[in-house]
Amino acid sequence: MAKRVLILSSSPRRGGNSDRLCDEFLRGAAEAGHQVEKIFLRDCTIHYCTGCGLCSREGRPCPQQDDAARIIEKMVCADVIVMASPVYFYTMSAQMKTLIDRSCARYYTEISGKEFYLLLTAAEPDRQLMLRTVDTFQGFFDCLEEAHLRRSILCPGVWNVGEIEGHAALQEACEAGRNC
Fold it and tell me: pTM of the entire structure?
């Protein structure tokens, strides 16, 4: 059965290592017949949450006029959400964290019953240290209802653009897309 797959690439570099993982996941999902959309967060304007409370206390939409509401609506409608990030200081990129923060209050209660995939790259060669980043994402998933982390694809030891080429993680991402 075809699924709606939303890929959120938070790489600051188009064609960067984590963005390449997105492309391979997309390729696999498209080959399997899924409806796939990739959003490159760098191309979006997403302001920081100001903590005004309009969404949580009053149930009103966020007053900020940017791309966050559009992206969050796509998250609500998706069956599968792929979150890709380079690892900076053992956590996700600022672009991804800002989007997660903006999905609070009424929005995150609607992002329920989703399957999640993580695609992470890091300059650090120790794969174990990347698990800190997975734990950070898990904090977000724990706030959602029936969120299921299906798979984390970790690619350590890649920093410069293109270092991921030939890495097994690319094939792993494509297979995950085919089987999501």
Answer: 0.96
